[in-house]
Structures are given as structure tokens and as C-alpha cells.
Design brief:
Low-confidence stretches: 155-196
Largest sheet: 7 strands, antiparallel
Strand content: over 45%
Radius of gyration: 22 Å
Number of helices: 0
Shape: elongated
Helix content: under 10%
Distance between the termini: 34 Å
Order of helices and strands: EEEEEEEEEEEEEEEEE
Strand order of the largest sheet: 1-2-3-4-7-8-11
Mean pLDDT: 79
């Protein structure tokens, strides 16, 4: 059983606000674990999104996400403690000029320490279920470059090298060009064209 609410409102010509909330009573209905909560399902999830278009060139997007506490994945007995709930903020700044858009997305803006996943695993010494945490990434940034210009894909035998400090993404209208990253250098070889 659950409830989902999605609200969106244009505040000004360039500013849009969206609120999302979901409540889920995830309970096992039958079997030997009947009545227990389904592991790794948060009871409450909420988010707030601000989308601001400054002008034809600049765009700013930010989001605040809340995930309620959850049982560990695989803990159908509900015997272990819970993964703590957390709130994380992300932001993205876009600059568009002619056919290009350059973006910088910062995830975990306030460098929140949290664990996004965890599992009940078997302790090889005691054969008991124990908690295993997987920490979420610290603050991180992802720059991307996007073009809406129809470009011709290089032939499969071609190898183009694009020097970038961090991974980047290449797109064209209607299709995407894949790239691999080796030591901070994006190498496009044997490109794969896929429809998006």
C-alpha cells in the first residue's frame, strides 16, 4: 500500500518548483516472513526540485532528496538494524551557446556522509547475518558537453582523442556517441551509435 504526490508550479517566467513525496508500506503478505517489512524499501521518500532558466544561455537546476531509513537488503527477518535515512543536495549549471551546452553537475553538494546501500551478509566465522555498509560517494562533480548539431560519426577504424580533465558525454540530436575514459583522456574508438 502506498501514496505518491507530485506537485509542480511555475513561480516566475524562468523559475519552476517541483515537490515529490512517496509513502510505501512495503510489508510481506504471506510465507514465513509474513508481516515483516520488505528489506531495502524506504517508507518515505521526498524531493524538492528548483529549475531556473536565467536567460537563453544560463540554466540552473537544484534538488534536495530525502530517503527514509531502510532495512538492509536481504534482511527478510528484520533482525538487523536499519540503514539511516539521509538528505542529499545536488546542483547543475548549464551554459548554452549556439549548438553547444556545457554543464557542471555537483552531486552531494554539502558532502553528506551516508550509506546508500547495505546488505545482510553471512559472517564466515559465525555463520550469522551481519550488516555490511557501502558508503555513498563524497561530493563529486561531472562536467558534460552536449551538442545538438548533427555530426557524422567517425568510421569504426578511426580513433579520435579528446583531452578532458574529467569524463564527459557526447550527444547529438537523435543519437549518442559512446566514449571510454583512460587516465583522464576520452578516447573514442569503435563508436557505438544508439538512438535516444
Amino acid at each position: 500500500d502506498g501514496l505518491t504526490l507530485d506537485l509542480g508550479r511555475r513561480i516566475t517566467e524562468g523559475l519552476r518548483l517541483a515537490l515529490n513525496y512517496a509513502h510505501l508500506d512495503a510489508e510481506i503478505k504471506s510465507g514465513s516472513f509474513a508481516g515483516n517489512r520488505i528489506p531495502f524499501i524506504a517508507e518515505n521518500i521526498a524531493s524538492v526540485h528548483l529549475d531556473y532558466t536565467v536567460n537563453d544561455s544560463w540554466h540552473l537546476y537544484s534538488e534536495l532528496q530525502y530517503i527514509d531509513e531502510r532495512g538492509f537488503s536481504g534482511d527478510f527477518t528484520n533482525a538487523l538494524s536499519k540503514l539511516e535515512g539521509y538528505t542529499v543536495a545536488n546542483a547543475q549549471l548549464d551554459f548554452s551557446r549556439r549548438r553547444w551546452t556545457i554543464s557542471l553537475r555537483v552531486n552531494n553538494l554539502f558532502d553528506e556522509e551516508y550509506s546508500d546501500s547495505g546488505a545482510a551478509v553471512l559472517d564466515p566465522m559465525t555463520f550469522a547475518s551481519v550488516e555490511s555498509f557501502y558508503p555513498a560517494p563524497e561530493r563529486n562533480a561531472l562536467p558534460t558537453t552536449v551538442t545538438n548539431n548533427p555530426v557524422r560519426a567517425p568510421p569504426a577504424t578511426c580513433c579520435s582523442v579528446v583531452m578532458m580533465a574529467l569524463p564527459c558525454e557526447y550527444r547529438r540530436s537523435g543519437s549518442a556517441l559512446s566514449a571510454s575514459v583512460i587516465n583522464g583522456v576520452n578516447i573514442i574508438d569503435r563508436p557505438t551509435i544508439m538512438t535516444v
